Predict the 3D structure of the following.
Amino acid sequence: MCAFIHRGVLPMGFFLKCFSLFLLIPLSQAKETCTYNTWVWSVRERKAVKFQRIQKDKSLLTPEERGPLEGCSLCEEDQKKITLPGIPGFFFCKLKAQELEKILLQFHKQGFPLNKVVGYRVGRSKGQVNAQGERTVFSFHSYGIALDINPEKNGLYENCPKFQSSCRLLQGGKYFPGSPGTLKAESALTLELKKLGYLWGGELKGQQKDFMHFSLREE
């Protein structure tokens, strides 16, 4: 049947299938490209360093690049843009983006002030510090499975086993529980995201409390 293609009898999709058969390469095994920008957080310099643009065949990804949740890798190709009224769009793992967008849009329509949401961004900002004073592990933001909501109102604190005046602000804005746009354990948005399997950074065990942060895996 492939012999009739030159007469324009068959559609282009059939042509592609025939061409792949001719090359003995099934379409399902066609190469996929993975691209992402990345950086490393320097604890000594307190800034991101070693910026890189990575492009490689997806079949060559390491387990670290593939990530802890199947289908949510470091690759831009695994991410989907979420656009909400009045704020810049952000990217999230495409396997989870639709349900997340639905929830955030619902709360936006109900009047919850969504000023900024941060999702996918690839960088080594977690884990042990190496000899160069650099973090060694990709954050869950790197896989599009974590988001920060209103960071200017829901800061990240250290020396904070329980939120109190002695907690030290590391990133984002000062946290005043109950003010518009802040998140608490009993907030409707927090509870709804927890139903979907997200863990809230305000309930992190240990010395840090990250009130802006939600993740699909335990930090």
Remarks:
- The chain is about 20% helix and 25% strand.
- The first strand starts at residue 33 and ends at 42.
- The chain has two domains: 1-30, 33-215.
